[in-house]
Specification:
5-stranded parallel β-sheet; about 45% helix; single chain; globular; binds pyridoxal-5'-phosphate; alpha/beta
Length: about 450
Amino acid sequence: MKYISTRGGMEPIEFMDAVMCGLAPDGGLVLPERLPDVRHKLGTWKDLSYQDLALEVFSLFATDIPEPDLKALIQQSYHTFRHEEVTPTVQVGNLFILELFHGPTLAFKDVALQFLGNLFEYILHQRGGRLNILGATSGDTGSAAIHGVRGKDNINIFVMHPRGRTSPLQALQMTSVLDNNVYNLEVEGTFDDCQHIMKTIFSDVSFKDQFQLGAVNSVNWARVLAQTVYYFYSALRVMTQTGAASVQFSVPTGNFGDILAGYLAWKMGLPVHTLILATNENDILCRFFRDGDYSVSQVHPTISPSMDIQVASNFERYLYFRVGEDSSRLRAMMETFAQTRSLQVEPDANGSIDSIFKAGRGDTTSTLEVIRRYSLEKGYVFDPHTAVGVFVAEQQCEANMPVICLATAHPAKFPEAIQEACAQSVTHEILETLKGSQTRCVTIPNSVERVKSYVRQQVSKV
Ligand SMILES: *Cc1c(COP(=O)(O)O)cnc(C)c1O
């Protein structure tokens, strides 16, 4: 399997190169040259364990990694999950809840980042070289990335978070990781300052090359690929259990990474009837799928912070398919978007932007109401991100067909919202044991030069 750029300016490359490059050199995103059709395999896939299914899926895409190595990588990546099914689906009332939060940081990003960390280590062993990951986080992604690469050979990770602006629990999930290759930097500034520092450092190409800097952002192809597995796993089980011929998925969405994986699973032949895209007040994607208008506005902070996003970094991959895999047309659209911060797509003959998608938004009041209602009536507590998805699913789903809602985080990560919604305190042993544990973190001024010199010092030490 070879990989191309959405913008058409890259000679086809192999899987391992696609993983290492992150973004394509022409500024586009990496995609497989063509998607495999797996319809004839679904009958056997429905009985596989999560790991065996992951091996089947990855083998189609990672054709430059020998199967026994891929198998070992998968075992290594998912034994860190605290549920034997890795991503189990449970029934709550009429809904099927796909629990993606059994990984080390209790959020769905672990599914991809546990695998990506092992994959980076494997590729570096094969090829030599080192990788210094630099990232900026407001909470979630940083801790999943740190847990993905802690203790790995030939990899360091530097994660900046804004001092005093990350929730204490989320900060603790990062700073309590004491492995020698993990560096937490608490920046005296905002999350935007952290992102600005990161972008400025990455734009210094000679610094980037000299210190072998890399990123683990959500556009990495291996992350999207890893996320396709649970769509197959859950849909096939729910279809077997209910006898249904297809399913609906509801996905709380920010950067469009998670729902893109569902879209690709559908394109590969999984019988998905609808993908329900749920946003919070930051509803650019919802507006797009309703009226074809993708126009950037201001970011609103909400109680589902991992969805507080305006420009969805993975959206370009979807658009590529939406314009009929025509990279010149896509390139022109992205150029217009870069200038005007807005792009438009015409509806089809039925007035729909894309019939596989439905979209809706849930605001803070609806989110809290959903958490309260399910906690009272079903004794099941959703985290605020999951609750947005459940709210929109209730509005948009079709009756008489199973609807699977992706549960993207454990509620114990968001104690304030849960307390407000249902006057309940939800805990998790992992978070409890963190409290009072030893931490390591350096405070650093809001300065590109100071962060650079810190990275330079630490990397040169080894
Ligand atoms: C990242 C995240 C999301 C959004 O996923 P995208 O791939 O960015 O759309 C939703 N919920 C939680 C808990 C997350 O951490």
